[in-house]
Specification:
With about 350 residues, this protein is an alpha/beta fold. The protein has two domains: about 180 residues, Quinone Oxidoreductase, Chain A, domain 1 (Alpha-Beta Complex); about 150 residues, 3-Layer(aba) Sandwich (Rossmann fold), CATH 3.40.50.720. It is built from eleven helices and 17 strands. Strands 3, 4, 5, 8, 9, 16 and 17 form a seven-stranded mixed β-sheet that branches. Helix 7 runs parallel beside helix 8.
């Protein structure tokens, strides 16, 4: 089969013919139709992000495809099924604290690297091998719709955060970092769940205004100016009531003060979810007031990705019309033009665009 290979960090991806994946028990072979290109993929492939990947590797995380073959333990999946491929591979030998691999992207820990040795390659290929439990059926779709369904991957990340926070209809939410790809998706997801108001923060006022224009009057944009106390006061002034939940999804380049600014707006007994990248690129962490957290009974969740049941729930939300995948403008590239896709994704990292590689 044809696949894109990352042979060494800092070099372009190479298109080569590689052996077809071999099916095993607990696994499914998928004919890949479309895979989203992350905006920061160039940073991964250059080595700048220091992601754990054993080279050479076929990158590409998740995607949309059609089942080619199933293992002997599959009871529902069948060849011909259209599926979402969840890249969040979890070890099966510890249900309490499993190791995690983002297939085709990063092992994150040494335990995840063991998973990486088996589920080594991702989805920038004509076929991919995926754990059976990582596939969720989409139902009937037209093959031309596969690229737009790649938007599931962007929506599922903040959805995982809202699930762990137990977000309820009618609550008031702050999305800290609402101008980015995942942040704007968080706004859409919170609205779909039924939030009374979503306060979207960010430094780019024009993008914040566009987020509010697209998603309606329940979105309240607050432009961050860089003064922690004044920015916090603006968030509180914008809120139509006590803030129930704060989801931080800021990029690694953001300052710890931006996290703290939003976190300290949450009401007593409120919840905070940390899903961003602050501190991952080095530099100081976030200093938080111990006594304030304790006396106000604040719950803080760190959350990476989403639970296994989330893709099925998100697909149902899309089918119900609560989430509109057409909100993203999709630009597609063939596998042979994958390096152009890497460049395009980096140059078009806004909230309402998505770069997709089709196989």
């Amino acid at each position: 089969m044809k696949a894109a290979l990352l042979k060494s960090f800092g070099t372009p991806l190479a298109i080569e013919t590689v052996p077809d994946p071999v099916l095993g028990t607990g696994e499914v072979i998928v004919d890949v139709a479309a895979t989203a290109m992350l905006a920061y993929a160039r940073e991964v492939y250059s080595g700048k992000r220091n992601y754990l990947l054993d080279l050479p590797v076929v990158p590409g995380s998740g995607g949309i495809g059609c089942v080619r073959a199933v293992g002997p333990d599959a009871t529902r999946l069948a060849p011909g099924d259209w599926v979402y491929c969840d890249p969040t591979v979890r070890s099966r030998d510890d249900s309490v604290s499993p190791d995690i691999l983002l297939q085709g992207l990063t092992a994150a820990t040494e335990g995840g690297r063991i998973l990486h040795r088996h589920f080594h390659d991702g989805s920038f290929a004509e076929q991919t091998r995926v754990p059976t439990e990582n596939l969720t059926r989409l139902g009937t779709i037209d093959p031309t719709e596969a690229p737009r369904w790649c938007g599931l991957g962007r929506l599922l990340v903040p959805y995982g955060g809202f699930l762990v926070a137990g977000l309820k209809a009618g609550e008031i939410v702050v999305v800290n970092g609402g101008t980015g790809a995942f942040g704007s998706a968080a706004v859409a997801v919170a609205l779909a769940i039924g939030a009374r108001a979503v306060i979207a923060t960010g430094r780019n006022g024009a993008v914040l205004d566009e987020v509010a224009r697209r998603y309606g009057k329940r979105v309240l944009p607050v432009q961050m100016q860089g003064d922690e106390e004044q920015d916090r006061a603006r968030i509180l002034a914008a809120a139509p009531g006590p803030i129930d939940c704060v989801l931080d999804i800021l990029l690694p380049a953001a300052s710890p003060a931006q996290v703290r600014t939003a976190l300290l707006t949450v009401r007593p007994y409120g919840r905070v979810v940390l899903m961003g990248g602050v501190g991952m690129a080095g530099g100081p962490g976030v200093d938080l007031p111990y006594a304030w957290l304790m006396r106000n009974c604040i719950t803080i969740h760190g959350k990476w990705m989403y639970p296994r049941e989330a893709p099925g729930q998100m697909i149902a939300m899309v089918r119900a019309g609560l989430i509109d995948l057409d909100a993203l403008a999709v630009t597609t590239f063939g596998l042979d033009d994958i390096n152009d896709a890497v460049a395009h994704a980096a140059a078009n990292a806004g909230p309402f665009t998505m770069t997709v590689v089709v196989s």
